[in-house]
Specification:
Number of strands: 9
Distance between the termini: 29 Å
Shape: elongated
Strand order of the largest sheet: 4-3-2-1-7
Strand content: 5-15%
Order of helices and strands: HHEEEEEEEHHHEHHHHHHHHHHHHHE
Amino acid sequence: MLKGRFAWLLPLLRYGLCAVAILYLVSVVRWYDRARLTETGDHWYRVFERGADHYVIDRDGVRETVALDRVHHVEVGGRHVPEIELGIRSVVLGLNVGQAIWALALFIPVTLIQSGRLIVMLAIQGVRLGYWTCTKLTFAGNFFNFALPGTTGGDIFKAYYIAKYAQKKTEVVTTVFLDRAIGLLGLVFLAGGAIAFTRRPEQFSHLVASLLIICGVLAAGALVLFSRRMRDFLHLRAIAERLPLGEQIIRVGRATVAMRDRKLLVLLAMLMTMVLQGLCMVSAAVMAWAIGMRGELTDFFIYCSIGFLIAAIPISPPQAIGVMEAAYVQFFTAPPLSNDASQAVALALAVRLIQLFWALPGLLVPLLGAHVPSEAELEALQSEVAEVPAAIASPPPAGAPAARVGEAATAAPGAR
């Protein structure tokens, strides 16, 4: 009743946040270039043309040619250059196409590594899925992350169809979202590690406290989940049994705790996460340089990682539209980077386009029905079904081989 009464609140918050962010962007981003003259102080003029020794500006509705020495200059990288605020049009026209292609190409291995990580995460639950199947479902999931509201719509799609391959429904669905959690954890580590190695740690001092709080919350959650004594002390099982869907909650907990007994697989999943997230950030950095932005590799590792984290916040609008762009404007226009707002917005949009480009093959998966097992596959899966004890109650030993796809827990009632 309470949930139904206030169901409108979250959409209102999300789309309200989106509207505020877009209004902010409209106020700071221009389509055209602007410049200031030394004799007029803070007044900005639209720039129609930039020549080697002159600018053509709009002054009170009249086009006027001014000498370059009348344009306000600033120090950038030890050079005295005209201060100009680039518009979106100039940013797009000035794109270094070669670097942009490199940025696109650097993203190629990301989905392939992501598919491998899904195999590892499923193996933790004793479910074995082929690489080709995981690759198809990962591409499809990435596509639906763009096609469905929010940034986790593809996870729901992927969880639904992977559950068709295995009868450990709860464990499989939990694994898909644990896979997403591992990815977000990797972003936190990536941003924190980049801050540790940057040459300007003072530039990011305001972010350290937030990252430490996130790490503290994660550490506390891990302690509760993976410490049997802590769970017994808090009587978590007794609490879960009294809740609606208590049995399902307990199974979700067991699926999560299974990670404790598969430490090497968890470590492998984390290493794969760091590699694929690192490739994402390098791709974003190369695209930023193609746009003409200033910044070192560590700057983009830190700020782009935080941008992806912002997109994952539940109250963010679908795909964090507007919000991520506004965050990039705040990050990349501040000194010492001092990029233009148009460049920051262009980078945020370019990062989205790179992801969307490599997610497009996922559209073929549901269209061709390749995500659903064929009749022959289903019969093969049925022949491989073997009785196992109530393994869901206690995960298999770390050295035990993973169960084949289609293997089911057939012991206790309700164990499915």
